[in-house]
């Protein structure tokens, strides 16, 4: 090509690059035809990219392709299909491919790869299966790149069964084959299948393999396996890669091993925003809010600018610690830095203000949110509940139902909390019955039963609470038994104590408070034999009360009794005698203070 031709080619290429509508491209197309540059590979590439981004009608690109002899080269057709696959309307690549095939074009490996790229972008599982048949009939199926692409696109489209069949039919598999199916299983939530496949691998894993399988370990809480994979990554020399380090850090946090996560974090030489995000949010989820705020300060000192994800975690930490001023500063920072609000930031702000007692501000943010999800509703209903606004919480629940949102288990837990804090017994019964009705079809969990038992016990309905406990499909926990015992003690009802004593024998309660409550209840009712039975049961189960002291002031003199030391040979008798003495003194009216 002459210098003039070269110069014209570069001018036209620059014009194609700058063109932003079909009209101007048609003028450039005319120059390409008159200059015989239309067949140039670089020109075709630029034209295909332009058409894929700007032309939504397949007729023009199809007419553009008629200029080429497809028997000489498949490059123009493949490039046009690939251009549309990379554009905003990837399904047009399928239409163009079908048109070219109807007009005599014979697809090759690159055609299949371009089409599958298009299918992956719009999850076209039907088209994937069609081209799977085409690849099989034309013999293109035997290419390992085609096979790996089918594994990938089946997984992307949500058909892990189809991906597994393709994988099983492969005679030769490389690390891309294994990693494609493992990552597909992880994305589909099939974590056990992903781990089982990883353990079958007969090739050395790569970085993507480690990232996927560490994610599966974190989701399942498989700490020991995760540690083993961490060690394997170090052995394969991938353990120092930043993306692998971040995956290891996230795995440890999801397995609630904050110590290992912090060690991993400290060993990362150059941290990125993902490292800081994983560590800070992980500490909040593992109930270390104070440590997460300290780390947040370190991050700012390191020169990193926090994003919305980190600030959401920081606000959750503020809510856990009741740090209203800190939370207000974060709110102000979000506004001043113009960080884009989303439903997650708004929900966390509602939760923070509500838990810090600033319910007016929580209401203002809730009302101003353009979109809400169920977590937003739960945060505000729960905030109203814990701040004593039971009626308002129930009204908001009705608003939730009217809005078309579907309540979940957390929603009902907030509703029961509102009833409990405000003494709304009849309302609590009503919503508890509705929860498992066909209207909501939700099964009450242990926490829901706990709230209802607490509600009934606070209202003095001890017998009803006891009957509710009998209907529970799971054994009661320490909180439920404790609430019932406290109510029995308050209202002088000892009718359930023998049943509770039997349940303590059957269940592995290790909390000494339950046994002490029951023992005190027996002592109050002068059932000293039962007091001894409870203390013996504690000794049999190896449960001991932390040593403490009781001070009784009689006629101006203080008498201190050390109790709860299970190592003392007479601690049980001392405890019983102390209860006898306390009751005797109380009945005679000599007691001034009993601690």
Question: Overview of this structure, please?
Answer:
This protein has a domain at 552-588. It has helices at residues 3-18, 22-35, 41-54, 59-65, 75-85, 91-102, 109-122, 125-138, 144-156, 160-169, 175-187, 191-200, 207-220, 223-235, 242-254, 258-267, 273-285, 289-301, 308-321, 324-336, 343-355, 359-368, 374-386, 390-402, 409-422, 425-435, 446-458, 462-470, 478-491, 497-506, 512-524, 528-540, 571-588, and strands at residues 548-554, 557-563, 591-594. The relative contact order is 0.03. Mean pLDDT is 85; it is low at 564-570 and 589-595. The protein has 595 residues and is mainly α. A hairpin with a 2-residue loop joins strand 1 and strand 2. It is elongated and about 110 Å long. Helix 7 runs parallel beside helix 9. The chain starts with a helix and ends with a strand. Helices cover 70% and strands 3% of the residues. The protein has a 3-stranded antiparallel sheet, covered by helices on one side. InterPro entries: E_motif (IPR046848), PPR_At4g14850-like_plant (IPR046960), PPR_rpt (IPR002885), TPR-like_helical_dom_sf (IPR011990).
